[in-house]
């Protein structure tokens, strides 16, 4: 079998050395009744690369590929062009098949990349420090609530109605077990975000406000007044960014007073991948760093005085503190963080700003065209590369109808909020640099049809 | 040696000429120093081209950003930067990576190929489900094989890593107890357990207590039975355990825990030893996470991403998280999310992550299982156990192996620092291994063995490779017993010497700060090469 180097002669020689007559003797601690008598039922014997590839290709062929049709989905995962060299670099064996850098002398590649990633993330999010990544944006979000609880010693979190419903759902699940009280609400199909509701709800029991920026409908709101109101009450502002590219064009949450900024880094370097693996971004103020979960790479020197990098402040983590750790998290999203960092490096400030401008310009054009369709109106006053349309019909069946025409026309709010009748006509449309004029033509035509 | 026909011979270096000469660049041939991105990139440099934008409308709510300070590089410079950094990393592709409990096996490149098929890589998680039936089928098929291989009843595919899976399992247990109105406060965890176990239990609101081990390194069954009671929600067991030993009393442990009304969580990190040969479900466990990045070869990627599906018993499956991919009698697949939870999965404890799980790892793991097949998976377990026992018996005369007397180990062998001379410790042995071209084994874990060294070769190591490792470690062990001080200088050949971790924690520098114009840097030490 191509992945197993031992030959029968090897096995024989090794059993001799061990002093066992057969491999079965090495399994003698396994009680007889627990040993399987034959191979797993129903699973074929080993297969060639060719056969496995054929099998997997057959499954892949049953899916509609985003890059092959007019494609307008967002809501927490975005399709951007990833430069060709990113995928080549992350497949270098020294990156792909390396481990957590616990032996820093032979892991300076990983550690320096993490240090650069942390710096890029902190600067992008407008914060002083960032960690070496979390699993994804949604788990980073609930870890931020936990961190706010530890810092403020309060346990009531107010979640904006503009927070991605999956993220809110994750937070609600975790809050059942941590005892945090969550104030949540569904969004409304209007241009205004719920900043007023949030500010009014803050009191002396509030640990944090959690606001998404831009929000699930694509709306952008100034976070400064919310930050000020939170701080006046001794609470923290947690900002959630699901489309980090937006920060190439609009102010970073950290600049507006957010204390903890988390996000989903997927749109930079990582690709859609049907939902995972993604990369959670987590940044905060320097004074809170000891309460931050996840790995941290820090600068130091070696025995010869040369600069190097190591994982640091490990006393926060499970392998040292065990039950007193800030989180149980062990792995980060290393390879995805690397992809994010390489893409950010290839963009640089100039490229990031240029790409963000291109996204916004294309989204503005598309919004104008689509809102001219009879019966269709644009909900947003503000947006970056994603906006919400109100259709004259229910959006969820409209999305399915557009699939029949070969168009992936956006995410219906009915898919995300099946119980909210007031959102049933909402369609969230994302327009990135990968969208062509022909794609918008196709969406316009398809929408006209399904909205009749 | 073949004869050099020109007769020329190189002159030998002068005797006693120890130190290698310094170079201007700080490079040493193929060993290249590489500055930070922030020291070489520029705000105006970029490695990406795209169409210029005619400025149209602006809908940014007046929140335009000014001042973002991020350097870029052209493509050639970026490729060099990351290629040079990669060469400062050890990796499985380079050599043996004998980390106990990590299962650093070869990462098949077929898996990388299939994961990148556009039909898997370029699909959005919220696409209408009729457009992603193949993807849902992958998740469902992998789920099926994980259930079959473990002999369990159901599986939660969405946890994003092993620790996340542990959280999932414990939340199922807590939900099951709440459902029967039987809130309990304590979880029992062996002292030898991985740190994520007590951390997870504490997060779930439980008080953690130790389970003692006996002199054979296994769970002390009588002591455990003595402690079980109406306040114990669960025990968390690793089997094979973190000393590399199978727990022969596993079934009895499960029976005792169930009799006392509790649940058994099994940490599946060591599944590689028994895959295809033993089904943990037959031993009575209630939940077990499987690290796809361990047993099922998905790449470690320098620290992640992982994937930690959790197989569940019949008692716990009803409480598993949302969403999951279900197969219907008409052959179609659907995600069961919050929307239909009321009818189809009413007692779920809820959603653990946005979207559906680590799809990129599912395709890789499924390709792995199909490649190995039923016979190949059995061979995986057998070869991994054979390799570990070969290492154990080849070293036990020079390195103390505290449980070698009690019989064979499973897929990993544990050694201690008992016979080292005064002043020499496990870390010195580990750093000396680096100079020999190996990544060290797991050090100082589990806590129950003094100066623990946990060696897991995996099944993808050749005998020749193991022999080389054994020879190197025999030599180092001899030096450790003899008190050879030069061990404390190791590593001498790595890109960096031993790094000052105390300084890093005392004065944390976690991001690059552009040095002030007066030249006062924020860095701690000299960096080499141009900047």
What's the arrangement of secondary structure elements?
The complex is a heterodimer of chains A (452) and B (531).
Chain A: H1 8-18, H2 23-26, H3 49-60, H4 84-90, H5 93-96, H6 108-125, E1 129-130, H7 137-152, E2 156-159, H8 165-178, E3 181-183, H9 195-201, E4 206-212, H10 224-232, E5 236-241, E6 260-264, E7 280-284, E8 297-301, E9 307-311, H11 318-321, H12 334-371, E10 377-378, E11 386-390, H13 395-404, E12 411-412, H14 413-416, E13 426-430, H15 437-450
Parallel strand pairs in A: 2-3, 2-4, 4-5, 5-6
Antiparallel strand pairs in A: 1-7, 6-7, 8-9, 10-11, 11-13, 12-13
Chain B: H1 37-40, H2 75-86, H3 109-115, H4 118-121, H5 133-150, E1 154-156, H6 162-179, E2 186-190, H7 196-203, E3 207-211, H8 221-227, E4 232-238, H9 250-259, E5 263-267, E6 287-289, E7 310-312, E8 324-327, E9 333-336, H10 338-344, H11 359-395, E10 413-415, H12 426-435, E11 442-443, E12 453-455, H13 463-482, H14 501-506
Structural class assignment of chain B? alpha/beta
The largest beta-sheet of chain B arranges its strands as: 1-7-6-5-4-2-3
Helix percentage range of chain A: 25-40%
- From the N-terminal CA to the C-terminal CA of chain A, the straight-line distance is 59 Å
H/E element order of chain B: HHHHHEHEHEHEHEEEEEHHEHEEHH
> What would you call the structural class of chain A?
alpha/beta
Estimated radius of gyration of chain A: 25 Å
- Estimate what percentage of residues of chain B fall within beta strands: 5-15%
Number of strands of chain B: 12
Uncertain stretches of chain B? none
Distance between the termini of chain B: 44 Å
């Amino acid at each position: 079998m191509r992945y197993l180097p031992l030959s029968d002669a090897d096995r024989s020689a090794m059993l001799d050395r061990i002093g066992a007559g057969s491999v079965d003797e090495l399994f003698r601690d396994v009680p007889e009744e627990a040993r399987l008598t034959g191979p797993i039922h129903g699973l074929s014997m080993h297969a060639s690369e060719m056969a496995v590839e054929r099998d997997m290709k057959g499954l892949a062929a049953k899916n509609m590929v985003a890059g092959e049709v007019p494609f307008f989905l967002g809501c927490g995962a975005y399709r951007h062009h990833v430069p060709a060299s990113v995928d080549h670099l992350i497949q270098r064996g020294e990156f792909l098949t390396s481990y957590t850098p616990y032996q820093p002398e032979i892991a300076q590649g990983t550690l320096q990349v993490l240090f650069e990633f942390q710096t890029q993330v902190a600067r992008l999010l407008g914060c002083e420090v960032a960690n070496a990544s979390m699993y994804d944006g949604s788990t980073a979000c609930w870890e931020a609530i936990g961190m706010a609880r530890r810092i403020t010693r309060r346990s009531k979190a107010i979640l904006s109605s503009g927070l991605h419903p999956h993220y809110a759902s994750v937070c609600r699940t975790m809050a059942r077990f941590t005892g945090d009280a969550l104030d949540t609400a569904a969004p409304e199909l209007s241009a205004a975000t719920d900043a007023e509701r949030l500010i009014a709800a803050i009191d002396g029991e509030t640990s944090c406000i959690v606001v998404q920026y831009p929000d699930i409908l694509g709306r952008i709101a100034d976070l400064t007044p919310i930050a000020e109101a939170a701080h006046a009450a001794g609470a923290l502002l947690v900002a959630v960014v699901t489309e980090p590219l937006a920060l190439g064009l609009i102010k970073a949450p950290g600049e507006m007073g957010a204390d903890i900024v988390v996000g989903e880094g997927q749109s930079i370097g990582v690709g859609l991948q049907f939902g995972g693996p993604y990369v959670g971004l987590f940044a905060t103020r320097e004074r809170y760093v000891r309460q931050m979960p996840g790995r941290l790479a820090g600068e130091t020197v070696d025995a010869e005085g040369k600069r190097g990098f190591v994982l640091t402040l490990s006393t926060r983590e499970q392998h040292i503190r065990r039950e007193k750790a800030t989180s149980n998290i062990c792995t980060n999203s290393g390879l995805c963080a690397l992809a994010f960092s390489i893409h950010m490096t290839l963009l640089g400030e100039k490229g990031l700003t240029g790409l963000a401008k291109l996204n916004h310009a294309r989204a503005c054009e598309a919004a104008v065209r689509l809102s001219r369709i009879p019966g269709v109106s644009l909900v947003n006053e503000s947006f970056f590369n994603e906006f919400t349309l109100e259709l004259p019909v229910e959006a969820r069946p409209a999305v399915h109808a557009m699939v029949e025409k070969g168009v992936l026309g956006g995410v219906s709010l009915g898919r995300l909020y099946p119980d909210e009748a007031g959102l049933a006509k909402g369609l969230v449309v994302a327009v990135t640099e990968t969208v062509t004029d022909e794609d918008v033509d196709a969406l316009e035509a398809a929408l006209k049809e399904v909205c009749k | 040696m073949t004869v050099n026909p020109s007769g020329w011979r190189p002159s030998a270096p002068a005797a006693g000429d120890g130190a290698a000469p310094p170079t201007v660049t700080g490079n040493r041939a193929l060993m290249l120093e590489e500055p930070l991105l922030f020291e070489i990139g520029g705000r105006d440099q970029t490695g990406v081209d795209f169409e210029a934008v005619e400025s149209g409308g602006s809908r940014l709510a007046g929140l335009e950003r000014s001042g973002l300070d991020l350097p870029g590089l052209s493509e050639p410079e970026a490729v060099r930067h990351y290629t040079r950094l990669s060469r400062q990393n050890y990796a499985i592709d380079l050599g043996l990576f004998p980390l106990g409990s990590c299962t650093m096996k070869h990462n098949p490149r077929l898996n990388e190929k299939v994961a990148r098929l556009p039909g898997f890589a370029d699909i959005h998680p919220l696409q209408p489900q009729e457009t992603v039936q193949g993807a849902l089928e992958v998740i469902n098929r992998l789920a099926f094989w994980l259930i079959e291989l473990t002999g369990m009843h159901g599986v939660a595919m969405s946890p994003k890593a092993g620790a996340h899976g542990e959280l999932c399992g414990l939340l199922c247990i807590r939900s099951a107890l709440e459902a029967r109105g039987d809130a309990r406060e304590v979880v029992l965890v062996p002292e030898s357990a991985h740190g994520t176990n007590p951390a997870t239990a504490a997060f779930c609101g439980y008080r953690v207590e130790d389970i003692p081990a006996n002199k054979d390194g296994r769970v002390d069954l009588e002591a455990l039975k003595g402690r079980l009671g109406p306040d114990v929600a669960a025990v968390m067991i690793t089997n094979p355990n973190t000393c590399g030993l199978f727990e022969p009393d596993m079934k009895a442990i499960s029976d005792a825990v169930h009799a006392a009304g509790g649940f058994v969580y099994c940490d599946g990190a060591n599944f590689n030893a028994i895959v295809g040969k033993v089904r943990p479900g037959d031993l009575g466990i209630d939940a077990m996470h499987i690290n796809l990045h361990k047993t099922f070869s998905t790449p470690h990627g320098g620290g992640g991403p992982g994937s930690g599906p959790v197989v569940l018993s019949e008692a716990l499956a009803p409480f598993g998280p949302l969403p999951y991919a279900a197969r219907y009698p008409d052959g179609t697949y659907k995600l069961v999310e919050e929307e239909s939870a009321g009818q189809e999965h009413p007692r779920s404890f809820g959603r653990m992550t946005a979207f559906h799980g680590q799809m990129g790892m599912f395709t890789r793991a499924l390709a792995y299982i199909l490649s190995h097949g039923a016979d190949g998976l059995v061979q995986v377990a057998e070869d991994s156990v054979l390799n570990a026992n070969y290492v154990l018996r080849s070293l036990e005369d020079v390195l103390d192996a505290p449980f070698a007397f009690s019989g064979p180990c499973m897929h990993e062998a544990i050694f201690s620092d008992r016979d080292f001379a005064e002043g020499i410790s496990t870390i010195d042995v580990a750093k000396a291994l680096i100079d020999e071209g190996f990544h060290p084994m797991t050090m100082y874990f589990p806590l129950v063995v003094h100066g623990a060294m946990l060696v897991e070769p995996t099944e993808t190591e050749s005998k020749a490779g193991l022999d080389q490792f054994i020879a190197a470690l025999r030599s180092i062990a001899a030096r450790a017993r003899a008190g050879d001080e030069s061990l404390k200088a190791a590593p001498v050949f790595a890109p960096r010497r031993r790094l000052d971790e105390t300084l890093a924690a005392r004065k944390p520098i976690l991001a690059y700060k552009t040095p002030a114009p007066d030249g006062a840097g924020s860095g701690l030490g000299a960096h080499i090469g141009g900047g």
